[in-house]
Amino acid sequence: MSVSFSGALPTAAFEKPKATTLTAKPAEAKTPEQKFLEYAKMTPAERMHAAMLAQMGLTEDQFKAMDPAAQQKIEDKIRDMIRQQAANGGDKRAGMITDKSA
């Protein structure tokens, strides 16, 4: 006795999918802990670079995706921002410099 279905699936539907046919999952959002650990692992220079990029409205991933000429323009702009901050005295928040001679 044989059973046949008119709308049966081809046997390929039951085979394991090949690695090349799989699609990548969308990137999951990072947890606050992951973000903190990434920041904690950064050097002071990397933190400054990231802060300057953020001031310009860019992320590190966006910066890395740019062509080398655009990256160089951004680097030049960051260099100018650092020079300007150094010339203006840098950070002048309260408590940064204390006169204890009195």
Distance between the termini: 106 Å
Oligomer: single chain
The percentage helix is 40-55%
- Rounded to an integer, what's the Rg over CA atoms? 27 Å
What's the rounded overall pLDDT mean?
76
**Count of beta strands:** 0
Structural class: mainly alpha
**Net shape:** flat
Poorly predicted regions: 4-14
Order of helices and strands: HHHH
Main beta sheet: strand number and arrangement?
none
Number of helices: 4
SS strand fraction? under 5%
Briefly characterize the structure.
The chain is mostly helical and 102 residues long. It has a domain at 45-88.
Word description of this protein:
This protein is mainly α and 102 residues long. The protein has a domain at 45-88. It has helices at 32-40, 44-55, 60-65, 68-87. The longest helix has 20 residues, at 68-87. It is flat, with a radius of gyration of 27 Å.
Spell out the blueprint of helices and strands:
Blueprint: H1 32-40, H2 44-55, H3 60-65, H4 68-87
Give keywords.
mainly alpha, 4 helices, 0% strand, flat
